[in-house]
Amino acid sequence: MPDDFEAMWSDLTPVGRSTTSGGYFRQPFLSAERELAAWFVEQCAARGLRVETDGFGNTVGWWDVPAPVVEEVAQQPSRNPRSPTAGAVLTGSHLDSVLDGGAYDGPLGVVSALAAVDLLRERGVVPSRPLGVGVFAEEEGSRFGLACLGSRLATGVLAWEDARTLTDRSGMALADVVPGGSSSLLADVGTFVELHVEQGRDLVDRDAAVGVASEIWPHGRYRVDVTGAANHAGTTRMEDRADPMLTFAMTALAANKQARLSGQRATFGRVSVEPNGTNAVPSRVTAWLDARASSDDALAALVEVVTRQASERAARDGTAVAVTAESVSASVAFDPALAAALADPRGWPVIPTQAGHDAGILQAAGIPTAMLFVRNPTGVSHSPLETAALADCLLGVAALADVLEGLL
After folding, report:
1. Per the CB 3.0–4.6 Å rule, which of 94, 231, 316, 325 could disulfide with 236?
2. First-to-last CA distance in the chain?
3. Is residue 319 very low, low, confident or very high in pLDDT (cuts 50, 70, 90)?
4. What is the DSSP letter of 238?
5. For binding Zn(2+) 2, which residues are annotated in this chain's numbering (predicted)?
6. CA dihedral defined by 256, 261, 264, 268, rounded to 10 degrees?
7. Which CATH number is associated with domain 219-328?
């Protein structure tokens, strides 16, 4: 018998967990994440799912249509395969984490998808369309710097030739980790449904255990390079310095202020300083800005004003600043008819999300997509404090099974 939800969750809990912070380090294609990938294949095998992988590290376990049903379906009129009523149905999420991340972001969707397959079988459901449980690689962008890397490559919105040279912090290229090439995993997929822990407090405030996503805010990652002149911290007069740290500090404050004024999001969560000496004025500060906004225009305006204020400060400090967009994802509206079909009969709230997801990549690539959220009582994510109650998780499994049954 395959493991149930609680047994599967118990299997995953210790993998990649820090003994000091309690957070998770499950970076793509490294030991902890590879252990989870092997676990997923074992769980698929226990359920008799046919496992298919691509050259980018993405994996799908397929529950194929039984032969008699295949013959019956073949006699029906052909339909558009990119439609909620035709083609294969895909569910799942990812198994990688941010640095020192939470347990639920990603793995909850994978474990829930496997548990939903079990529940569908208990209900006697026989699929008339293939059902896949998928795991996308490098969703967080925590190793190679580009979020939703696996799904971008699988959908073809990112070419392998452009991705192969991406490097991690040690300088290892993506092409040295995966074979690359092309992917056919999504060729027959007509619908994608991703279950995810909510990364905020909307469901908590609504006192709802499950919600449906309406849209994903546009978001981007921008590298900010500030260059100055290294010098002695003691002998260099303050007025004689070209200190890039001052320019960066003002830029971080400006980003915070502009985001607050406009109701958007701006975060500097990663900084690199050269030469990184306690008694030296830095020669360079490189920082990464995560910016998110309620519309594409609002995102562009936020980044523009932060860039302008950084440049103005650099002119006063005698430094130079350059802002480079490393990845930008436009706003994504999920299939409205599909969202309404899921939410309306059940009374589930329909809410936006400010976090990026593989679901957004598939929707933007033309695959009708829906997202289910499970309540997070702390509202905290990308942190060891991220959590979800077991009762809510099991409600999420039942909700996902209901959705998949309707599609199948």
Report:
1. 231
2. 23
3. very high
4. G
5. 105, 140, 382
6. -10
7. 3.30.70.360
Alpha-carbon gap, residue 109 to 154, rounded angstroms: 19
Residue 365 — pLDDT band, cuts 50, 70, 90?
very high
**Mean pLDDT score of the chain, rounded to an integer?**
94
**Domain ranges for the chain:** 5-217+331-407, 219-328
Binding residues: 94, 105, 140, 196, 221, 279, 292, 382
Give the pair of three-digit tokens for residue 44: 């698929």
pLDDT at residue 112 in the model: 98
Q: 288 pairs with which residues across the strands?
A: 223, 270
Binding residue numbers for allantoate? 221, 279, 292
**Position of tokens 């890397």?**
149
Extract the annotated binding site for Zn(2+): 94, 105, 140, 196, 382
Specify the pLDDT at position 84: 63
- The pTM (predicted TM-score) of the whole model is 0.84
Burial class (CB in 10 A: 0-12, 13-18, 19+), 99: middle
What SS3 state is found at 304?
Answer: helix
5-217+331-407: in CATH 3.40.630.10: yes
* pLDDT reading at 59 higher than 70: yes
Which residues, including other chains, have CB under 8 Å from residue 11's CB and lie 6 or more apart? 3, 39
Cα→Cα distances 23→6, 60, 356, Å: 20, 27, 20
